[in-house]
Design brief:
- Helices cover 64% and strands 0% of the residues.
- By secondary structure, it is mainly alpha-helical.
Length: 227
Amino acid sequence: MPKKPYSSPLLRWLYENSLLLVGSVLVIGTLAGQIFTGWLDNNSDLEEMGLLPLTLGQYLGSGHFLEATFENWESEFLQMGLYVVLTIWLRQRGSSESKKLYEEEEVDKEPDPTKQDAPSPVKHGGWQLALYRRSLSLMFFLLFFGSFWLHAKGGAEVYSIEQQHEGKPTVTMLEYMQTSRFWFESLQNWQSEFISIISLVGLSIFLRQHGSPESKPVDAAHDETGK
């Protein structure tokens, strides 16, 4: 039986948006913890180099904060962007994360501009529809490149401070992007995200989680593909 809606508008709104709300609370909570501990850690490093510690406000604009934050964000956006695009064409027999092997699915059908509740770009067609039908992957890749740039910007600032302390020349952002350190930071995060993709795709073939849309039904055969 379908779940009865809450009588209270507030409770109904909280229930209908609970996944995004809880995810946002987790992001804010862990980001706050990262900021506080990163601020203390960075000030400890600065004091060891004989430099003045930063206030919390100054830290939020520092290279240490930018590098630590966006080094991780870039890998997340890259993972999601690639995953969205790869699942258009690639299949995995038995995985709940794959489209069905041979049948056409709803997401493969051409958008219907006559649907009453179709989004505005679908009804307008033309360039608006062409952009909208690829908007999810485009946004993930835009977020990736933005995070990639901020990672490089922050990393160059931190690297230059260390270089100055050792009596060596500072570097520009482009020069920092040519160092092995920058690519080590990026690639170690990228590969961890790719591991999460193959783990979810592969484990969902044989394992189940009752009640989760990321899993097949508990009684589904191992070779059943798709949700």
